[in-house]
Every structure is written in C-alpha cells, then in structure tokens.
C-alpha cells in the first residue's frame, strides 16, 4: 500500500482546519482565504525521527534543500501531490528538527508588514523576525498552540535564492 502524507505527518486536514478557523475567527484582513499558503511545517522530536520522516517524505516529495537554519537541520520538500484543502493547493512541506507535530503554516502577503499589521491592528503579531535578512516574517499565534507566519516570498523561491547564494560563496573560496 502506498504511503500517504497523513501516514507520515498525521491529520493534515484537521490541522489546516484548526489554523484557518482560527484565522477566520481572528478576522484577518485580507482574509486568509485570499493568501497563498506556500508550505506546512512538521517537526520531530529526535534525530532518528528526523531521518525516518526524511525517508518517508522522499517517497512523496522531492527534496529541494536541506540546510542548518537557526542551529538545526531543516529539509524542504516539494510534494509530488500538493495538499488539497478547499480551493488551496499547498506545494511544500518543511521538516525541521527537533520538535514533534504540525506546528505552523506560512502565508505569502503582497503588502508591507506595516500595512498588513495596520489593517489587522486588532491582532497581536510577533515581529521579532521582521528584520531577518532572508525571508523576514511576522507571526500570529492561533489556539491551541499553532502559528501562522506571514512573509513576502514563497518558500521555493527562498530556497532557490539560498542555493544561489551558497553557490556564489563556494565559487569565491
């Protein structure tokens, strides 16, 4: 029997339903329904689980990039079959080590963070990653412990940019 994404990471649709319900209840503007969800994030607890999930995901997806980000390995995959959730098609999954469970999604916004936050002044955004050099973001917590990150570039584009930067740095050495 073929492996499914749910076999690997659990109840994806339940997770997405909880996150988007939370966003709708928060009255996010523009509506989360109007934003592109570029990836899911699934965390693991141990290095062994990280390797196991990487092996399983390799049956369902193509590894775009694996790098140390924030002091831990993060593997980014392009799913062979995007996650279908309503009208959405979510193309990628991120696998960082080491925390277990589905944790966040990221949505691409087309306006500045300042404009987006002003339009959503009734919400409390975490802005600590807003000044990151590569792919800055703002974050919103959604009960029961999920988060939604908002950024300007789809994950695949960020990965390609990082690979190009790595290649340029390697050629200078």
UniProtKB/TrEMBL annotation:
<dbReference type="InterPro" id="IPR010393">
    <property type="entry name" value="DUF991_YecM-like"/>
</dbReference>
<keyword id="KW-0560">Oxidoreductase</keyword>
<dbReference type="InterPro" id="IPR029068">
    <property type="entry name" value="Glyas_Bleomycin-R_OHBP_Dase"/>
</dbReference>
<protein>
    <submittedName>
        <fullName>Dihydroxybiphenyl dioxygenase, putative</fullName>
    </submittedName>
</protein>
<dbReference type="Pfam" id="PF06185">
    <property type="entry name" value="YecM"/>
</dbReference>
<dbReference type="GO" id="GO:0051213">
    <property type="term" value="F:dioxygenase activity"/>
</dbReference>
<keyword id="KW-0223">Dioxygenase</keyword>
């Amino acid at each position: 029997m073929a492996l499914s994404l749910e076999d690997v990471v659990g109840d994806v649709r339940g997770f997405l339903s909880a996150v988007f319900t939370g966003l709708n209840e928060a009255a996010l503007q523009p509506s989360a329904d109007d934003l592109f969800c570029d990836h899911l994030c699934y965390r693991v607890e141990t290095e062994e689980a990280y390797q196991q999930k990487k092996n399983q995901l390799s049956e369902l997806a193509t590894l775009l990039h694996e790098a140390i980000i924030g002091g831990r390995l993060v593997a980014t995959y392009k799913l062979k079959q995007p996650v279908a959730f309503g009208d959405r098609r979510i193309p990628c999954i991120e696998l960082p080590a080491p925390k277990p469970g589905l944790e966040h999604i990221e949505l691409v916004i087309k306006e500045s963070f300042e404009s987006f936050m002003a339009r959503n002044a009734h919400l409390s955004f975490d802005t600590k990653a807003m000044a990151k050099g590569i792919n800055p973001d703002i974050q919103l917590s959604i009960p029961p412990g999920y988060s939604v990150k908002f950024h300007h570039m789809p994950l695949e584009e960020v990965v390609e940019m990082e690979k190009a930067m790595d290649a340029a740095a390697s050629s200078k050495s």
